[in-house]
Amino acid sequence: MPAGMRYATLEERKQFYTKEFDVAKAAEWFRCGFGGVKFAAIMGRHTGIFLEKYREDAETTIIIDEYKDTQDVIEQVVEFLPEAVYYDRNLYNQDDKVFGQELAFDLDPENIECPVHGTLADKMARQQGLGFCEIELDLARKEAVGLFERLGKQYSDVRAVYSGRGFHLHVFDQDAYKLTFDERLVLAQQVKGEGFHIDEWVTSGESRLIRLPYSLNGLVSRIVLPLKKDELESFNAFHDKRCLPQFLSIS
Predict the structure, then answer these.
(1) SS (H, E, C) the chain
(2) CA atoms of 58 and 133, how far apart (whole Å)
(3) Range 86-93 average pLDDT
(4) How confident is the model over 84-102, as a mean pLDDT?
């Protein structure tokens, strides 16, 4: 990991979600609030840090789809103190049937060939598949800028998010929600063919979960932060105070 990025402890996760998590901004992300949104939490699959009472479920994806209000969601997150919180991009009707899905693109730094550390295969061979360096993170940012511009020619409502490790691009145009799996797959393959190192499973819809904006990425102790295009162009995850949780910024 780059210097300054580390796993968040259980106490730090608790501090963040009880005192710092901006639930109002997270709700604004969905325009109509949390109503009907399904969330998911992973306690310790990658970090190995979890509450002992949940040891058997530490690597399980916990679905949070029964809650009264936003406060209830927070209370459930605090109960699990997860390393990651996601939301389900699927749209569900009252019968719990899927009738659409938010289109998204995931650019992770480990997927980019690094002039120092090589390809993803090289990193996997060294058992560093999830590791990345500052060079790779900046290359991912530059790819995100390029992809934002590319998508902006096709869609009118594109949003960028720093995921804590890489970058996500979300498309909120209504016609994008209606794309079929095959259409999403074709689009993913087109984008990859243009040189972007995206996660095809995310764009095609096979992987429907994505990090919740303003949540804590416990693998690197960074806040998942939405960014405007001009902010993305100059963003620095190591110095931008907006993505630094209080437990890191306290001197």
Answers:
(1) CCCCCCCCCHHHHHHHHHHHCCHHHHHHCCCCCCCCCCEEEECCCCCCCCCHHHHHHCCCEEEECCCCCHHHHHHHHHHHCCCEEEEECEEECCCCCEEEECEEEEECHHHCCECCCECHHHHHHCCCCCCCCHHHHHHHHHHHHHHHHHHHCCCCCEEEEECCCCEEEEECCHHHHCCCHHHHHHHHHHHHHCCCCECHHHHHCCCCEEECCCCEECCCCEECEEECHHHHHHCCCCCCHHHCCHHHHCC
(2) 27
(3) 94
(4) 94
- The pLDDT value recorded for residue 228 is 95
Structural domains of the chain, with CATH:
10-249 (3.90.920.10)
pLDDT of residue 4: 82
Q: Say yes or no to pLDDT of 251 above 50.
A: no
Task: Give pLDDT tens digits for 132-143.
Answer: 778 889 999 999
Which residues have C-beta within 8 Å of that of residue 196, sequence separation ≥ 6?
105, 107, 143, 146, 147, 150
Residue 111 is predicted with a pLDDT of: 81
- What are the angstrom distances between the C-alpha of 19 and each of 23, 103, 141, 223, 245? 11, 31, 29, 13, 10
Q: How far is CA 170 from the centre of its chain?
A: 11
